[in-house]
Amino acid sequence: MALSCSRLSQNLSLIRLLGVRTHRMANGLYFPCACYQSRCLSSSKVRRGLGRYVTSRLQWANTKYEGFLKRRFPRFYLLYHTFMEGFKLLFRDAKDVSGIKTKMSSDGIKFQDLPYREMEKLRQFRRDLIKGIPLVLISLPPFANYLVFILMYFFPRQLLIPHFWTPKQQVEFRQLYHSLRARRHWPVLRGVQRVSGQVKDSQLRSRLRGLCAQVQNGGNPKVSEILAVQSLFSGSPLGLSNLTVDQMRDISPLLFLTPHLPGFLIGRRLTNHALEVLHLDRALSRLGPHQLSDSEVRQACYLRGLNSDRLGVNQCRVWLHQWLQMSSSLKDSDVSLLLHCLVFLSANYPDNISHP
User: Fold this and answer.
1) pTM value surpassing 0.85
2) Which of 20, 132, 251, 349 is deepest in the core (most CB within 10 A)?
3) Are residues 270 and 334 in the same domain?
C-alpha cells in the first residue's frame, strides 16, 4: 500500500512538472490535475477580462475625444474623421489585395482572368500606392511628420489618395481632373484629322474624317460608325505603335497619365493602361453591367472618359452599355481605338460637352 502511494505521488509530481495534458496512470485510472487546470482557466479569464476592460475604456475615451472635437472644432473634426475612416478603408483594401495576390499566386490566375471587382480593386490600389510613395518618402526624416500633415492639409488633391478626401472634395477633385482631361479632346481629334490624309482607301478616309467632324460639331457617333474605321487603329496610320510622340502626349491625360516623360515610356504606359481597361471591359461583360451598384457604374464611366457626376445613373448605364458594345469587338491590337473612344464616345454625351 505504501509502495502504491509512493508511486502515485511520484507520477503526480512528474505530471505537474511536465504540464502533460493527459493524466492516464499506469494502472488505468485518471487523475486530472484540478489545481493546474484551475490556474490556467482562471489566468486566461483574467487576461480576457482585462483585455475587454482596456478595449472598452479606449473606446470610451475615443468617443469622448471625438465628441469634444465635434462640438468645439467642427472643421478639424471633419478632417480627423475623414483621416480615420480613410485609414480603415486603406487597411481593408490592403487586406483584400493581399488575398487576391495570394489567390493569383497559389492558383496560377492571371490578371485578365480575375473577376471584375477584384481586377478593379487591384488596379486602383496599385495606382493609389504609386501616388502615396512620395508622401511616405517625405515623412522619413525625423520630425518630418509635422511638415507632412501641413502639406496634406493644404495640398490634399496633389498628395492624398481618394481614401482621405471628404465627400465634397471627391466630387470637386473629380470635376477638376475631368476638366483637365477634356482639354485634350480637341487636340486628339486634330491629330486624327492630320493623319487622315495618309489613308489610301478613299471610303475609309471619308468615314474617318466624317467621324471627327461629327464629334467636333457636337454629335455622338454610333458604335457602328466607330467600328467602321477599326482597321485604321490596328495598323497604319493610327495604331498605337504608329502614333507620333505628340499624339501620345495628347492621349496620356485621358487616362490621367503624365505626358512629361520620354516618348518610349509614354507609349509603353499607354499600351499597358489601355490593355488594362480592355481586360476590365471583358471582365465586366462576363459579370454583366446590371450587377454593378450606382456608385460602381459612375466610377466605371468616369474611368472611361465620362463626366459621370453630372449625369443621372440611368444615363450612365446606357452609356456604359454602349461602351461595352464597342470594346467587345476589339482585339488587343486595337487598343488605340479604345483610347480614341475616350473622346469619340464621351466628348459630347448629354451634359458632358467639351469646348475647344
Assistant:
1) no
2) 251
3) yes
pLDDT(34) > 90: no
- Give a yes or no: residue 30 inside a domain: no
Q: Is residue 15 part of a domain?
A: no
Query: Is 324 within a domain?
Result: yes
Q: How far is Cα 240 from Cα 234, in angstroms, rounded to an integer?
A: 7
Task: Render 184-241 in DSSP notation, one character per residue.
Answer: THHHHHHHHHHHHTT---HHHHHHHHHHHHHHHTT----HHHHHTTGGGGTSTTTSGG
Cβ(139)–Cβ(132) under 8 Å?
no
pLDDT, tens only, 260-294: 999 999 999 999 999 999 999 999 999 999 999 99
Q: For residue range 96-155, what is the model confidence (pLDDT) as tens digits?
A: 999 999 999 999 999 999 999 999 999 999 988 888 777 767 766 776 666 766 777 788
In 3D space, the residue among 279, 248, 244 whose CA is nearest the CA of residue 261 turns out to be 248
- Compute the CA torsion angle 259, 264, 268, 274 (nearest 10 deg): 50
Whether residue 206 has pLDDT greater than 60: yes
* Same-domain check for residues 217 and 291: yes
For 30, the 3-state DSSP assignment is: strand
CB atoms within 10 A of CB 313: 14
Asked whether residue 61 carries a pLDDT value surpassing 50, the answer given is: yes
CA–CA separation, 166 and 83 (whole Å): 9
Residue ranges making up the domain that contains 160:
54-165
- 61-90 b/e (C-beta count within 10 Å ≥ 16 → b): eeeeeeeebeeeeeeebebeebeeebeeeb
